[in-house]
Amino acid sequence: MTTATVDITNIEKISDDETYVSKLNNAVGLDEISDNKKNNDNYYYTSGSFNFILDGAFKPETLESMALTQVPFAQDWYLGIVSIHGVIMPVIDILGFVKSQNIPVEESKTNKKYLLKLEHDDYSPIVFRLDSIPQLVNTNNCKNIEIDDKSPKWIKNYLDNGSEKLAILDHQKLFDQLITKQ
Fold first, then answer.
1. Does residue 130 contact residue 24 with C-beta atoms inside 8 Å?
2. Which residues pair with 83 in a beta bridge?
3. Whole-angstrom Cα distance, residue 96 to residue 105?
4. Could you tell me the pTM of the whole model?
5. Alpha-carbon distance 124 to 109, whole Å?
6. Residue 149: is it exposed, middle or buried by C-beta count within 10 angstroms (0-12/13-18/19+)?
7. CA angle 124-126-132, nearest 5°?
8. How many domains does the chain have?
9. d(C-alpha 178, C-alpha 182), whole Å
10. pLDDT digits (tens, 9 = 90+) for 78-125
């Protein structure tokens, strides 16, 4: 089995955005998360026409552009693996994974791509390729949209804030499914 190292040239380096990194770092601190939850402020990330609310139990980290190693015979949405500080992590095209679950979704309208590493105490870290850096949204005035029986079990429900449909995910079930499908 051979692997090739390729450079993902369309993934933008976003660690230079000090304001964003500062906000994101504050958002994952224990005090800040509880404060955000009291105000119903949540971070969400976007891929294609899909918006995912970030689960507070997962620690997010934005990553610089980096080379990845492709994995032969992997699913189309499994982009490869990266080594970060000696830890090997899979890189998932989350939009490709959503489409593989027969969920109708529009393609990305941007050439810019970002990497987001998600860590949880009970799982190995996973890196998602996204269309935008996580953004803050207040869910106070969002309308709850029920899901149908055909939706994957890792989608809890949807929220509509008037301009966007936001998916509330069970990231643990999503991680479990990603692990079994790799």
1. no
2. 88
3. 10
4. 0.72
5. 30
6. exposed
7. 155
8. 1
9. 6
10. 999 999 888 999 999 988 888 888 777 777 777 778 889 999 888 889
**Residue 15 pLDDT > 70:** no
Q: How far apart are CA 98 and CA 117, in angstroms?
A: 18
Contacts of 27 (CB under 8 A, 6+ apart): 33, 36, 43, 60, 136
Residues comprising the chain, all counted: 182
Greatest Cα pair distance in the chain: 52
pLDDT, mean of residues 143-169: 86
Report the Cα 76 to chain-centroid distance in Å.
17
For residue 12, pLDDT over 50 is answered with no
Give the CATH number for residue 150.
Answer: 2.40.50.180
Binned at pLDDT 50, 70 and 90, residue 37 comes out as: low
| Domain membership of residue 14 as a residue range | 5-181
